[in-house]
Structure formats: structure tokens, C-alpha cells
Design brief:
Elements lengths: L1 H13 L10 H12 L7 E2 L1 H12 L2 E2 L5 H4 L7 H14 L16 H7 L3 E2 L6 H10 L1 H7 E12 L4 H4 L9 E10 L3 E9 L9 E11 L2 E12 L28 E4 L9 E10 L2 E12 L1 E3 L6 E4 L8 H6 L3 E14 L3 E16 L9 E15 L2 E9 L4 E10 L4 E10 L21 E12 L2 E12 L10 E15 L2 E18 L2 E21 L2 E14 L4 E16 L2 E12 L6 E4 L8 E5 L2 E14 L2 E11 L5 E2 L6 E2 L2 E12 L1
Parallel strand pairs: 2-3
Antiparallel strand pairs: 1-29, 4-5, 4-34, 5-6, 6-7, 7-8, 8-9, 8-10, 10-11, 11-14, 12-13, 14-15, 15-16, 16-17, 17-18, 18-19, 19-20, 20-21, 21-22, 22-23, 23-24, 24-25, 25-26, 26-27, 27-30, 28-29, 30-31, 31-34, 32-33
Helix pairs in contact: 2-3, 7-8
Length: 668
Amino acid sequence: MKLLCYTFLLFLFLSQFIYSQLDSTSIITEDILDDILIEPDEESDSEELVDILDELIRNPIDINKADVFQLSKLPKMDAASAQRIVDHRNKFGNFFSTNELFSISDIDKALVQSILPFVKVTGSIEGTEQNARDLEDPKLFYGKSKLNIRSRFINDLQNRKGFINNKFEGSKLKSYNRLIYNYDNFFQAGFLAEKDPGEVSYSDFSSFHIQIKNFDLINSAIAGDYVLEFGQGLALWSPFGFSKGADAIFPVKKKPRYLRPYTSAAEYRFFRGAAARILIDNFNLTAFYSNNSFDASIDFVTQEITSISQTGYHRFGSELNKKSASKSKIIGGVIDYKYDGLLNIGVIYYNASFNNRFQASSIYDLSGDNFNYLSTYYEINFSKINLFGEASYDGTSVASINGIQFSANRELMFTSALRNYPRNYQNLYGFGFSERSGRINNEIGIYSGVRWKIPYGILNLYYDIFKFPYRTNENSLSSEGDELLLDFVSKPFSKFEVRLRYKYENKEISRAINAEEKIIRRLRQIARTEFVYNLAKILRLRTRIEYNNFFIKDANIKENGFLVFQDFRYLRNNIVLNGRIIFFQTDSFSSAVYEYENDLFGVMPNLAMYGKGIRWYLILKYKPIQFLSLSAKYSETYKPNVTSLSSGDNEIIGNVDNRVSLQIDVTF
């Protein structure tokens, strides 16, 4: 740790003589996620969602080659705006610069600004011919080669109970190391090693891949770790995805990225083996094979899988026993057809087999060790109308989602989607649009959303009504609910922005009343006001006031939560300084107020603020020279009225929880 500190001070000194302008891409990425996401009602680390944008930054979309479906993958992009970009290119020829997008009068300039980090333009020589020329010229080869190394270290300054009683076998340090090499848009290789606090090995989890792209008919071929994203996520998707958010349009329709390397530290639901995607005229053929181990609890007597672990923790005996306890073998293929940016249809088939049988705890739970999936998906563009959907068959039942997006003009857009996920549909490798964080069984719902740009700002409004026909992990009986979100962003002055948000959530939950389990209604309402002041190009201030009301009429329970924070961001040349101080007070954890935090590059935690206390953090991002970025964060939570924080093995004796984080990014 001392060596890292001395290195940091050395570069700080050298920067007085030579420095590089800090890349603003990470700042734009944070702002986009702020606009898209709303804080879920559970603590999480959204590293995976940041990784989606990070992958787009490493592999930007070529606006001189992309069709409507490819352009629609860009953040906040809709099919109608994507079609306008294609029409402009067809009419006037290839773009010479990404800034030419500003000249398209029918596209909102704020949208163009948000997609610039994720797009590029190329010249006329393409593919294997260009790659052969580059190999003959070392200067061109090295000029198109890019190596990114990221190392991250996080350490709690307080000792948790698991370390005090020596239950955890490893050190407190959390480490993350990733290396990715790219050669233009042709080749990529990567390796990742990660260790959680309490684990012994610094490569407790490791991931690797080699990828060849755009080689003759091969669009992409990967050996190692990868994920597959097709259709609307009912049959095949990565372990994470966007859910309902502040943008009422963007999250509803999935934007598949097909076959891509796995570069996340999440230790579940990825494939390890080989896969290839081949382009033949308008057809895309994808074949894949995976043989991978996963964490699971195994019944000692029957040798059946009782549950799958997704925590990734291997700190002591029982957790170590779950590590790689079973194996999965996946083999399958996808046929995908596209026509002129108007039609995209596809068929998915794959077989999943496991070393151990799944033990069902109820009639509708996953049972057996061999499963077959067949799915078909579609997307159709009719001028201002976009239709999309998928139906997936697991051998027992069919899960489906069908939706429409209508763009009246660039100011007004509407979407609606109907999802029907039967109680006996089971899929371990899907992540669909749903109320319960991507789960695609035992849910029926209708979602409707509007995004309307009015003279005074941008209004996002959605209403979602849903029902769980069978019991869930949270409720012992069938239940239902509805949810409404109103989000309004206004910029009355050039340097001042106001954000207003109201969320209404009315759900049925299980509750013990007079020693009897009953289904009762729980009403949660959240009101937020936020002010953003851009005092100058180098300084931005943000103030948030949020009130949370939690009400259960039948149990005579009413709780309140309150949060206020002041945030600042200072940007000058090679330095970004972020800070936030948060004051919060809630009646209990049930009325907790959640807040996404800025963090190191690639990390975005969502934390629950409950009880009474203060939290603050300070982040320094520093780029002393062109190829090097340094980031550091100190955070602290203080609760004056308690004697311990958290619980179980993570309990801290005392009322302060603080940690320090350091990250080094090297790019050649």
C-alpha cells in the first residue's frame, strides 16, 4: 500500500511539468446512467451495467456501416432516430466525422451528444485486405493496437466480525485486475482476476477470452468466456440488463449484442467454451458450446442441486464447498435474418445438461438435469412504428413478450409491452423485462410509457401493472401490484437544471397478522427534487432532497424516510474531483432511501440509507500522462445512535463504516 501511495505522489509531482487532458468519456457515461436508471429497492453494485457502456466505448459502432438495428443499441437511441441516421447516410454518402450527426435536423442534439463516445467512422478499405496491409507496416499495426490494464484495490478500514473471529480465511483486501488487448476492430484478447474480501487467492475468480472479429464471413469467433444476447432475453441473455428506469422508453425493448466476450467479475451465468457468428448475406448463423462449472448447494444424500449461489463469495468452509460444485454443458445455435433495416427475425435452440439434478421444492420449481429451449423473436420497423417480441418454449410452457414503440415525432414517443411468463416456465440463462429483476416466470404484466419533450423540459411517465399468479419467494400466496413513475427534467437557464420525480408503488405482500399469514397491500411513495448547477465548465453542484413514505393500512404501519445530499464535481485539465455529503433519517430499513454513487471507473454502487446518520465520500480521478489514469475514493458512513453496523459475519462493532479504494488504468 505504501508503494502505491509513493507512486501516486510521484505522478502528482511529475504532472506539474507534463499532463494530459482527462478523457471525459467516463463523465458522460455516469450522466447517461443517471438519466436511465432509478435506484432499485435493494443494495447492489451496478458494475455490470457500467460494463455495458464500457464495452461500447472499447468497440464503438461504425455509423458508416451500421443498420437501424445496430444503431438502436446505442444509449437512449430509438428506432426512428436510428432510421434518420441511415436515411441521411443513404442520401448524402458516408459520414466524414461523428460530429456530422449534429447536422441531421430531425435528431435531438442532446441525443447526439450522448451517443458520441460510442460511435465512430471508418475509411473505405475494410476487412482482411486492410488488416494484411497493416501487418506489413509495423507503424500501422502498432497504431491500431490498444492495450488496457485496470487494477483496483478496495479495503475496509474497520474489521468485520468474520475477520475478528478468524472465520474468513483470507485478507480484507478486495482486488480486481483486468487486461484487454484490441487490434482495431479485428482481434481482442482479455484476462480478468478478482478476489473478494475474506478470500485467500487473488485469482479466486478468473476469466479469459480470445476473439476474432470481421474476418471474411466470420463476424465474431470467441474461445474462452462469453455471453449471448438474442431477442428479448427470454431464452438467452447475459447475467444482467436494464430494468424499469427514469427513461420510460429505453429499458423496455432489449438491445441484443449477440455474441460478445465476457469481461465482468460477476461469477455466474456466463459460458465457457467456444462460439462463432457467421454472416451470409442477410443471414447470421451462430453456433455455441459451453462446458462450465458453477457454485451450488448440493444435497449430501441425494446429490441434487438445492440452490445456485450467485454471491461469488468463497471465504470459509460452507462457501468453499459450494465453489464449482456442479457443471453445465450447453450446446446450441441461432439463425437470425435481417432485411434492409425493416425486419429482423430469429430462431434459437439449445440444450442445457447438468452433472447433478435440480431438486424441486414445489411443483413449479426447476427439476431434472436436461433441458431443451426453443425460441423465436422478431423486430419490425414501419416508418414511425417499431414492433418487437419473443416467445420461448422450455418443453413445458411458453413465455412471451410483445411490444410496440411509436415515435410521433422527435418530441413525443410512446411504448407499450405485454409480458406473460407462466409459473412453470424455467430458464437459467434468460434475463427478460420484468418486475422482479429479470426473472421470467410466474408473472403477467402490462407496461406503458411516454417520453415527451415539451417547451419546458422532458417528461417521462410510465405505468406498470403486474400479477404473480403463484407464490413467490417473498409471498406465500398469489399477489399483484402496480407502479407509476413521473420524471420531469427542465433546464430553465443554460447552467441550471431541475429534476422532479414521483414514484408510486402499490404491492401485495405477505405479513403475519394475529399469528396468521395474510396478503395485504403495501403502499410506497417516493418524491424527489434535484437541482443541478453548472456554475462553470469546471464546476457542477447537485442538490437532492428525497422523501420516502411506507404505509401498510391493514397492519397499521406507517414509516417515513428522508434524505438530502450535496454533491459537487470539479473538472480541470487532468483532474476530476467528486464529493458528496448525505444526511439521512428513516424509521427502519423498510423505509430506506437508496442512492447511486459515483465511484471508480467501472463501479456504480446502489446503497440503502436507513436509520439516522451521515455518509460522505471524496473521489479523485487524475490523468498525469496520456496513457495513465489514477483514481482514489474514500467513503465513510456514521450512525450516532447505534453500537454496531450490519449483521452476521459482516457486522462492524462501532458506528463508523469507512473504506478506501484505489484504481490504476493504463492504456497503450
